[in-house]
């Protein structure tokens, strides 16, 4: 199975009117993982830079059966570069 795991289907994507959430995105990836023995996953679309990086990370974590470690979690006091507006 070759899966193009884009993030332009997410609710926060500024160019689409699709409404996937993190939960629904991970459910789709888990369903793919449970249906195929081998998956070649590629990154894809997404026009919200933070959401796209988050989706690709979620997919990678699920497909590789690992728990992410973030040594900076809780140290930033919120989203980095929160003043930036990505369009």
Could you describe the 3D structure shown?
It is a single chain. The chain is of the alpha+beta class and 87 residues long. The protein has one domain (2-64). Helix content is 34%, strand content 9%. The protein has a two-stranded parallel sheet. Strand 1 (2-5), helix 1 (22-35) and strand 2 (40-43) form a beta-alpha-beta unit. The radius of gyration is 14 Å and the shape is globular. Residues 81-87 have low confidence and may be disordered.
Report the β-strand fraction as a percent range: 5-15%
Mean pLDDT: 80
Number of helices: 2
Please state how the strands of the largest beta sheet are arranged side by side: 1-2
Structural class: alpha+beta
How far the N terminus sits from the C terminus, by CA atoms, comes to: 32 Å
Q: What low-confidence regions span 5 or more consecutive residues with pLDDT below 50?
A: 81-87
Q: Tell me the domain tally.
A: 1
Run of helices and strands: EHEH
Q: How many whole angstroms does the radius of gyration measure?
A: 14 Å
**Beta strands, count:** 2
